[in-house]
Protein 1
Amino acid sequence: MKSNFLMLLFSITAAIAADVTIPGEGAYSVSNLGGLPDEPTSVTQPLANQLLDVLEKYGLTKNFGVVGVHSHVSLAPGQVMFQHGNSTFTHQEIEVYNDVRSVGVPYTYRITTDAIPQLLPLDLGEITPNVMAARSDLAAAMANKAFLQEFAEKASGHLAGIAYIRPLDRMALEHSEVVKNHYNVEKTAGNATAISLTAVESDDAPSFFTRGVGNSTAVSEITILCSACGHGNPWED
Ligand SMILES: *[C@@H]1O[C@H](CO)[C@@H](O)[C@H](O)[C@H]1NC(C)=O
Ligand SMILES: *[C@@H]1O[C@H](CO)[C@@H](O)[C@H](O)[C@H]1NC(C)=O
Ligand SMILES: *[C@@H]1O[C@H](CO)[C@@H](O)[C@H](O)[C@H]1NC(C)=O
């Protein structure tokens, strides 16, 4: 009885631990967040539309969206933001990278716009079957070097990247809601939940754009809001 349970546990753990290798995926380092502002304003909705065209061309829009990369937290060398959650709530906090690297995979990437663009992980999140399916899509897109080149060309120096569409984001999109992050005062931890469009405040800035996930027919759907980023509210005036 007990050994059956252990066998089952072992096979589940082994299945989850079998990571997908993504060609050209950069290594995580705190320096990947170097120079990021605390506002996602470098990516506007028209630019997000163009970047989503690239994601669509490479079969990524089912599981990834375009993000205006930014950072609210200051991390010391060796630290990483780690997130876990479900379809109604996510929590993220600062962890020691070496303690959590084996139980997480990147959820958000910065794509640099150097001559040879790089896919650089910015955070980690828990390993789930859904995020592994997303990693398979990303591995297929990255097998073609043209993907990063085209993304970087369109981004043309703007601070842009891609992020996994989490169950929380998907649920919000399906219900015409938006996800909002709430950080603690020290900016060492944050929670995210979905809010209705009428609860959006004027200084909430859009930071995540997806396509074809919700019921909207818009070319890009705004999913995540960054509060107090000093940027206009897309639903006002
Ligand atoms: C998600 O997690 C939160 C916090 O643990 C919990 O309160 C909530 O019920 C969970 N939601 C679902 C749909 O499981
Ligand atoms: C949007 O579509 C999903 C199915 O994709 C459905 O479950 C959901 O109820 C729809 N939401 C609205 C507001 O129509
Ligand atoms: C996040 O949620 C947890 C559990 O509900 C709560 O204890 C914590 O204070 C929240 N943190 C923030 C930054 O809102």
Note: Residues 91, 182-184, 189-191 surround 2-acetamido-2-deoxy-beta-D-glucopyranose (ligand 3) (CB under 6 Å).
Protein 2
Amino acid sequence: MILIIQVQYADGKTYWAQPSNLRKVVKPAKRIITAETTRQYREACLRYVNPDDICLEVGCHEGVTTAMVQRRCKTIVGVDLSDVTIQIARQKFPQVRFVVVSGDNVEVLKGLSPTGEYDKIMLDIGGIAELPAVMHLVGLYYRTWKNSTLIIKSVFFSRLLEDTEMYKPQEASVSKAAINAAAEREKRREQESSVEYE
Ligand SMILES: C[S@@+](CC[C@H](N)C(=O)[O-])C[C@H]1O[C@@H](n2cnc3c(N)ncnc32)[C@H](O)[C@@H]1O
């Protein structure tokens, strides 16, 4: 016997589904997720994409990741600066939208979204693409689409973040030390003055 349950989406629509086909919606803790390998990158894309998401993949190549994500989101467009790979992607996945455009052409990218916004932006211009090229695009997307989650495949960007520590200001402990020292001075002064009167 197959168990089927009724599921209600946030927009009120209801669907019948097998529980084994249901996926938990996972909200990433940070705005940027990095991956070093294609396998990790695809896993991250599929893990964080939601049925209501408007998605963009920059550096879609022949469209494999774009097509995988397309099945799990509302809409996606894959872009690449190579028209040869875009032609192949269109042949392989005719149901998916692919466009030839460079990843730094933000105005064109905005126009490819029905709202001008993206929930998820996936960036893969090559796992060992030069760090400045990756960071340039990450910076552009981070500033342009403030509500987007970015999923980045880059060995160098991942390692840079791994080697990064956010400096935590020390004021709190300094002022605590200062308070202790002041209390100590006050105590000593009191002791000295009580000695004078004895
Ligand atoms: C490793 S492949 C991407 C593989 C694809 N993401 C996948 O999962 O199957 C890198 C692609 O990035 C494209 N690319 C490199 N620089 C780019 C840029 N500035 N804008 C758009 N695409 C770029 C290349 O043409 C190439 O097709």
Note: The first helix runs from residue 38 to 48.
